[in-house]
Amino acid sequence: MPHSSLCGTIQSMKAIITVVGADKVGIIAKVSAYLANHAINIVDITQTILSGNFVMMMMVDFENADIAIDEARKDLTESCAALGVEANIMNERVFSQMHRI
Q1: How far is Cα 27 from Cα 19, in angstroms, rounded to an integer?
Q2: What pTM value is reported for the model?
């Protein structure tokens, strides 16, 4: 069941997930499994190794998610920290406004 917020429901809300840190086996698997378990759809994904660091960006859609973005942010931050990488989730509109020229 979708959660509501001050700005309306999270339905159709897209978010950007970034994950950065030392490369190791299982980072994409752990993040993807978490998203699948909460019905958060991966719309687009890119990842690379930059100067020995794993760097991943995902566009995800919370339309059918069973959790709110704030809860997902907390959960992913904690589980990724256990892997030694830093994760963040930001509303796509906020991300776009921050990166406008």
Answers
A1: 9
A2: 0.79
Q: What are phi and psi of 37, to 5 degrees?
A: -65, -20
pLDDT tens, position by position, 52-76: 899 999 999 999 999 999 999 999 9
In sequence order, the 6+-apart residues with CB closer than 8 A to the CB of 65 are 2, 10, 38, 39, 40, 72
Tell me which DSSP letter residue 28 carries.
Answer: H
User: How far lies 18's CA from each of 3, 6, 25, 82, in Å?
Assistant: 23, 24, 17, 16
Q: What are the structural domains, with CATH classification, of the chain? A: 4-98 (3.30.70.260)
